[in-house]
Amino acid sequence: MVSFPLQWYRALHAKIHSGSSFPLAWLIAPAPADLGFALRTTIAAFIALSLALWMEMDSPQWAAMTTWIVAQNSRGQSLSKAKWRLIGTCIGAVAGIAFLAALPQEPGLVFPFLAIWAGGCCAIATFLRNFRSYALVLVSFTTTIIVLSAANQPDNVFMIALSRTTYITLGIVCESLLAALFAPRLEHMAQQEMRERLLGALQGACTGVQGLLRNQPDGLLRSRALLGSIPSLADQTEFSEIEMGPHNHAGDHARASLNAVFAFLARSMTLRIHMQAATPVPPDFQQAIDDISALLTALPTELEQDATITAATRARAQIRLYRTRSQQRGIERLAKFQSLQQQDAPTLQQQQRDLLEGRILESALAKLLMELDLVLEHFIATQTPSRSDHFRFDRHSEKDVLLATNNGIRSAAAICAGGLIWEITAWPDGSTLAMFVAVTSTRFSSFEDPVHAASGFFRGAVWTAIISFILSFVVLPQQSGVETLLASLFFPMLVGGLALRAPGSIAGTAAAYNNFLPFMVGPANHSRMDEITWFNTTPAVVLGIGLGIWAFRLVLPFDPAEERWRLRRKMVRDLRLMAKGRLTFTSAQWIARSGDRLAQIIRHAGTHPNALVEAYLTGAMSAMTTGLLILRLHNVLSHKLLSVDQHQKIAHVLETISQIKGYTQAPALASAQAMRALLPAAMTERNLSQQIDLIRAIGALEVLRHEFTAHATFMDITRRFHLADAPDRLTA
């Protein structure tokens, strides 16, 4: 009899994890980890609330709210968010005191200056990543909350600021201490999570590259999820670093490994273009491609099954062997080429050209294998961290000034609107409305698509209002002590915690529900929320959140098509500046920037990308490859080994790229002309160093000719990108 419920639970739990849809599965049969998270955070919130009540704080609900706000899926995320929330709160508290002291009894000036302050904070937050961005958001709305809370009692602004900082700190401490008690083997788990992320990225890369090597042009598009997730995976390594402790550079190695995955994909595109140009490829080269494809098939499984670094070390040895063989074949072709040069017979020119093309193929293959070896090198370093390791990897994230400006303007406009409503209506709880307008507008201001990011937030506020109504009018009036208050809140909070870990869009709704439930219930020592207070406060909160979200729809609304077009203009503009030599990158920096843009396109596309989005991805990958080749040509020119005429041919190609205007085949034609001029020189050049530079330039020009021919429409930034062959004439 006892085993039947257990068997039913296990069956239902297995059904949930098998991917089948089941209504309320996250509530009926939650995963043990999700249940543990919900229980732990609920208890931490109760401890914070109980201490705040015991300390006779004026707004004890904020302590419980903070506990839910800083609680995250991983310990590293919680610690990072708690740290930056505390920093942002302290700075915001000081700023709030300064604002009210500088502008007492001046509502006409307070809101404009608050809007400028919040807008500036949100704009700068756009340039930062992870919870460093969140800290600046905290500065903006903490300042607003303190100013609005003390607007009617400016003499108490210092105590209000100190009180807010105190219960925020209390909530953070309670969550952190309780989470620390239930986080055994934290370092080991963090290392495992980092390993799983890297293995997932490597598996997707191997699948995509296999498709390209087997002449499947959509090979990379089938790795769309990988292309979109690499930047976020790189961000998540920061939290694993925190869990693994100080003096550990595993996170830097993980970011370098993920960046090498992008480079691996870019090199595979270049190799595929060379293979198409050299069709049919030499038999020995084709055999090497088959061997590498087999390696890519087996590699992810071998790494996953081996908990140590043995499989990765063995794979690196195999990759280095294949790379050595590729280099050896290139040397053998060079020797044959030089031998034919000595004979100087016109009938042998075709053989020389075949050997030259073979050297280009082997060079491209060696670069591909080098990037794969680099992926595994850094992967091994993440699994064997050493205190003597001082490796650093900086992603050099792009600073998007226009996006930052838009985010700042949205937040400023929302805060001004909230203040204006308060002034016009003279609503006693108008400050609460303005407060939550500020909280919502600043919280989501740093997102690229704030409407999508905040989609579940308003629903969560509405659900919170419904549950708080039941608690405030049915359940809590019957209670008389803190113990019964906590008992009444236990199940509603536990459900919110489980929903927070549920898959899909419900997590956004749950976040708002958990955050605002303590506020709408309003627990206090000597009173319960009465009808008048509830009907004044709760609508103000819900309306404030709704207005904050509507500000994103009305003020500079986000348009995915417009954003894609802007990204395309930025890509082409960067290529032009790189060709001029006015914008310099290392290969790793360019790949990281291009990878971020690819991820943006995928995020904007949503879950159902169309043919236009697929074309954008192909064009963005082409831009990434083109940028690498421009860097290569600049590198060749910097050696100053080529003749004046050869130098001018390559410089003319770069100049043509730098002057792209509208739809043009000029870069492709210039690349083809330069190839025709350099190829005979490479055939007759006896100086090995000059010949190597010539071959590097010819290989780059061959790919540039293909890219500017195939993607001339994408490079035309004078008009919207369109697919002429698409049945619905998709444009963006």
What's the total count of β strands?
0
Basic shape = elongated
Low-confidence stretches: 725-729
Percent of sequence in beta strands: under 5%
What string, H for helix and E for strand, traces the elements in order?
A: HHHHHHHHHHHHHHHHHHHHHHHHHHHH
| Residues in helices, as a percent range | over 70%
Radius of gyration, rounded? Answer: 30 Å
Question: What characterizes the major β-sheet?
Answer: none
Mean pLDDT: 83
Assign the structural class, choosing from mainly alpha, mainly beta, alpha/beta, alpha+beta, or little secondary structure: mainly alpha
Q: Give the end-to-end Cα distance, rounded to a whole number of Å.
A: 62 Å
Tally of distinct domains: 3
Q: Which assembly state applies to the chains in this document?
A: single chain
**Continuous helix count:** 28
Subcellular location: Cell membrane
Transmembrane segments: 37-55, 84-103, 109-127, 134-151, 157-183, 457-477, 489-513, 533-556
GO molecular function, one term: transmembrane transporter activity
Main location: membrane
